[in-house]
Amino acid sequence: MTDHLLVESGGTESGAPCERFVGDAVRLLQDGHHVVLFLVENGVTAALPGASPGVAAFLRGGGELWVDGFSAAQRALPAEDLLPGSRLAGMDEVAGRLLAPGLRAVWH
Fold first, then answer.
1. What is the pLDDT of residue 72?
2. Source organism's superkingdom (predicted)?
């Protein structure tokens, strides 16, 4: 099993490309991998309830959803407005995760 960190920066504004990328995260989960999906910049909007069917499926599948706290604050999105199961995270956590041996990371 491989650890993956997928970073989405476009969010719901980018439409289909965001959903395809999140779909990749769902498929990795289904294949038995551990996946963290980190939403940053406009990507944080995908963590709003009803905004992204793919993100909801990712959470249902057991993925870890991290939402950049700075980006969320810049868009006036408090933690309580985000999907249950998501959590605010900082770039220090992302940087630490990137240094983990064997991690595969993709930024979209």
1. 97
2. Bacteria
Q: Are 51 and 57 in contact (CB under 8 A)?
A: no
Residue 107 lies in a domain: no
Its domain, for residue 98, covers 3-102
Q: Are 81 and 48 in contact (CB under 8 A)?
A: yes
d(CA 100, CA 4): 10
Residue 79's domain is classified under what CATH number?
A: 3.40.1260.10
Q: What was the pLDDT predicted at 80?
A: 96
| For residues 26-37, average pLDDT | 96
Structure tokens at 83: 């999907």
Name the domain count of the chain.
1
**What's the CA gap between 54 and 19, in Å, rounded?**
6
